[in-house]
């Protein structure tokens, strides 16, 4: 029978099992799960499952070290993201399932291998791995999963850099290398330059010998923010208010030596875009990876016809679908070699001593705070294991 | 000295000559010219110049048969188009010039060769040619121009089809062949389907075995318009109001057999675009060649990131710059072979008997009418020659 190590409070309904084998559903230790889409603070609960069995053939057991919270994770929980997780039951090899689907939240994560099943030769106990399967559910203390869901992490990586490599720095790297073949000394423009992607763009461009015009929102501590971006290697940092400056184009030309700018990376959208496009040369690419303004991009017809601007999108999830495991590993090694500074972050620990109800309360509080914008930094969950 | 064959009224100032040789400025017979940018009805005048001299080496003399008025021509006269004509004086081989620049309006035109200079072997008297040089000034009765400014017209072409081939059908052809390699039976979507480009798209697609969803504005006589587009080979014609129909996507899927649509041709812009994009498959191209709504295109961030829609522009002028004369000739031959129906048109004759003042009045009236939208059809000028 399904056993909790600690009594489940009534408001945390345990998954109802219709039929199962005694080992097949023992798939996590403590996990942050949801049964229905909604606001994370409403629908997430921490649930402790029984101790994992030894991994089956071609599977491994892992213990999570750090599990980032990305904005897209929230959209997945809300049900408004195109990538959907598989319910926990669908992973069970014997076809058994809960009456209602149960989802483990989280897409990105760094874990340590704790045991390998028969037929697994690529990994051994103690290896650090990141999850490469999309939406496999990483906000957990331990899971048993197919070995093909992970890939090994280069040794050079710190835990924080390894835990956060698959989304933001990978997005930055691919946007800089996919759309335009940039030459040494060439300038690019980006907005949202203080985002995790933006900071990775600055650093990767710096290491490649490319120059960055970086735009950020004006704010009380903007000079501090600018100083941080300059310390990462930004060449110019400006605010969107500077876009109203009539001399800006001339300033840009002075910087670039009048060489046309061919790449704008956009994580913001909205009405600043036409002004940023005004800084670009003919045939430039505007590559969108986010829309923090929640506004559409007003594209001027003339920019398409006469200036030949190409408006494209980039989605790291699609890149993973379209590229081989080797390409992923190359990408990760390349990023490890670049030795990027860790993103500004905060580790939120979900302590092993606390019961599921207490941890659920922490999770809810965390997402209430995040929804109020009280975290400027990346939040990494450390889900401690109640079975340790 | 500069002589007019007829007295110039005071309000039509003749170009003031600073220094010249007696033959070098004899470059047109009657031409529709302007000295300053502005509304065509304000700034255009008809001016009669002396009889053309024999063509110099590598030049030819031509007599215009038909000279289309394209919307872009109006933008050029207004000074809001990126292509600028060269002033008449700058053509003079000896460097002589008027005190103020004088421009002959018009970009597209069909002409007959009346004389060839020494060294011209590609053309002979009587050849029908179209102007391939951009903004060379075609609203004229006769000109003397470099032979390299023209190319010969395939015999199959009617005068109207030849006169209008270099802009609209060429745009339609290239948009259908450049961005997506369409397969037999594949569907495309276009708006502004009753425009000259739109009608060419329908016919070219039909001849290639591609299917067209065509959108037009609703209007009192919409059934007549639909009937005309169906007669050209349209597969489905709808109005923008039909985009509100919740079953539209299913209707489209029924037509396409659920095959994703990969190409949207946009000559309109504005807020209908997101709805049209909703009919497309992942990775589709939205190719813009016009902006009749005068509204920007509101591009949804999600369409870029998750749906991988690519928003591109097409400009036939750029195509001409980037392609060889051979490619142009191939394009024209291909279009001649396709035997497209003549665009709905009206020939406006500027009669040889009338003096410049009277012709100027006709030109002004014409553009007042056009600016009020009183011409639904393409207008072709026939500038009769006062020297004939």
TrEMBL record, chains A, B:
Subcellular location: Mitochondrion
EC number: 1.3.1.104
InterPro entries documented for this protein: ADH-like_C (IPR013149), ADH-like_N (IPR013154), ER (IPR020843), GroES-like_sf (IPR011032), Mito_Enoyl-ACP_Reductase (IPR051034), NAD(P)-bd_dom_sf (IPR036291)
Keyword Transit peptide carried by entry: yes
Keywords: Fatty acid biosynthesis, Fatty acid metabolism, Lipid biosynthesis, Lipid metabolism, Mitochondrion, NADP, Oxidoreductase, Transit peptide
An annotated GO cellular component: mitochondrion
Coiled coil: none
Pfam families membership: ADH_N, ADH_zinc_N
Stretches assigned to the Enoyl reductase (ER) domain: 38-380
Gene Ontology molecular function: any one: enoyl-[acyl-carrier-protein] reductase (NADPH) activity
Family: Belongs to the zinc-containing alcohol dehydrogenase family. Quinone oxidoreductase subfamily.
Name of the molecule in the record: enoyl-[acyl-carrier-protein] reductase
Species of origin: Cristinia sonorae
Lineage of the species this protein comes from: Eukaryota, Fungi, Dikarya, Basidiomycota, Agaricomycotina
